[in-house]
Every structure is written in structure tokens, then in C-alpha cells.
């Protein structure tokens, strides 16, 4: 590659071994490592690592706390500017999931010298534009030379300590709402292999670059019992974190889960990121699939364990409030939400497993045609 690559022709995904959040260390490995760290003893640290929540929350005063997170990963798309946007949206999402508003961000950059300055400038421009869209200030960052490009943000936000949205607190009878379709890991793997349909790629990109800002602000008028964002540990994995921390079972209705175009097709074709298998291994027997068809079960598993990049929010809310929340989200569609959302399940008393997936036979010919 020449010293100053053309941002319009460079294929960033060819420099990465894994795409986006599929590059995360597996939840099993991470859980073991975190268990060996000393426990927090600072009472001002309201949210730490105890429940695998989305961000840390540190109390400053009775009515003010800071939310802190960091997230970065290798390229998930080839276009540098779009990669910057997606990586920034993904990092900012953790603050929104907690119910906070981002105020500052710092760039985190690993970049090979062989690509030159123009490609890096486009990545940073994409990230800066997303930070600006979030209403936050980009205040600097840190960079190193690395053979594999990586980009993301360290983000600080503000929140009222009394209004923190945690990934636990789901109650039996609650409705589970998901605010973006799943399947980005499968589509991104197809893109990397140059096998993706253009419409599927465009839908995935549109979803990944969309901030969860408007969704968070809609939720400000409601009182969800629990909330998290869906990223590299998959819909099943993040659902399991919520269910386990809440001591309940979450029952996902697969027929209701919005899927990105052709995600089922890519699952059938075996275009499955390595992170999918790590997620499946970690959940083990703590998830039940209600189907007797092993072929369909494999496809459903590929989607439920698919590592998402910049995914939607997963919300547990009282059943009587769910219709109004869905109506409010629909009212914002096209005003910053712009991706498909749906009620995808319910919360029950714990029945021995934290996750159950029903209606798995809904993997029909129409889904395989990308409809």
C-alpha cells in the first residue's frame, strides 16, 4: 500500500482479523478475569463491574453523577468516514443506555503508518461528526502505531443519580422491547468476504451509525425497570446479563425480533463470526430453544448469539406502559431513531434457565429471501 492511501478506494476490513464488536474478548474469558479484580469499596461508585453494566457511574453530588465508558474496535466497514461514525455511535451508546447525556469524548486510535494520513483523517472526521451530533465536545485523545487499525472513544456523560438505568431490575410481567434489528455480525462477515448484498449492507450501516440518543430521550418520559444496549455479547448474551442480574427468565419470541435483510441467508451459508461461538459457549445450558428442528435451531442460534456492533437498546418495561412506549418510538421514527423496533419478548419468574427462545420455526422461506 502506498504511503498515503486513497480513502475512497482503501478496503479497511482487509486489515482486520475480526469486524467491529465481534473482536471482543469472549464473555467467559472476560468474566473470569474480572472476578479476580479487587472489589470496589468506594461508596461514590454507584455502578462498577459487579453486574456487567454498560458504563461506570460515579456520584459527584446528590443530584449529579458522571457516566464513563470506553469502546473501540477494528474496522467493520471499508469506508473510513463511515467506520469513524459507527465506532463513535457504538461508544456513545453506553452512556445513553445508562440514561445519561454525553458531554465529552476522547479519541482512541491504533493505526498502521502504511495507510498514511488521509485515511486516518477521514476516520476521525466521522467520529467527530457523531460526537457533534450527540451534543458532546471532542477534547483530544491518544494514538499508537499498530498493524491493525482500531478506533473508538472514551466518553464522559452526566446523569442524575436517582435516574440511572441499570441492566437489572426486570420484573415478571414486563414486556421486552428491542430498538434496532439484529444481524450486523453476520452482514459484516459477509461484507468482509465480499459476499454481501448491497441492500443488506446499507441497512446494517444505517443501523450501526444511528445514535441511541433519540431512543434514550423517548425513554426519559417512561420508567423502564431495566435497560442495556446490545453489542458484542449478542441479543441472547445481553438478555442473559439482564435476566441473571434480575433473577428472572426472559422469553424471546423469535418471530417478533427484527432482522437485518439477508441475515438469515448469511447464517445458512455459514458466514458466522468467531464471536458467535464464544457467545454460545458462554451461555451453555442457560438458554433454551423451543424447537425440535435441529437445522432451524442452528440458524436461530447464529442470530441470537450474533455479536452486534452499535446495536439497539434492550428495555424491560411494565406491560401497561409498553404500548405507549412503542407509540412514542414510532412518533420519533425518521427523527433520529430511524431503525426498526419491536416488542420481542416478556419476563417471567425464573424457571431454571435465564433465557428461553420460542417460535424458532419462524425462520421461513420469506426470511431467507430477505423479506
List keywords for this structure.
371 residues; alpha+beta; globular
Write the layout of secondary structure elements.
Layout: H1 27-35, E1 45-47, E2 56-61, E3 64-73, H2 80-98, E4 101-111, H3 116-133, E5 137-145, E6 150-159, E7 175-178, H4 184-192, H5 198-208, H6 213-219, E8 226-229, H7 234-246, E9 248-253, H8 263-268, H9 274-283, E10 287-289, H10 294-304, E11 313-317, H11 322-332, E12 342-349, E13 355-358, H12 365-368
Parallel strand pairs: 4-5, 9-13, 10-13
Antiparallel strand pairs: 1-2, 2-3, 3-6, 4-6, 7-11, 7-12, 8-11, 9-12
Helix pairs in contact: 2-3, 4-5, 6-11, 7-9
Number of strands: 13
Shape: globular
Which sheet architecture does the biggest sheet show?
7 strands, mixed
Task: Tell me the span between the first and last alpha carbons.
Answer: 40 Å
User: What proportion strand?
Assistant: 15-25%
**Helix fraction bin:** 25-40%
Count helical runs.
12
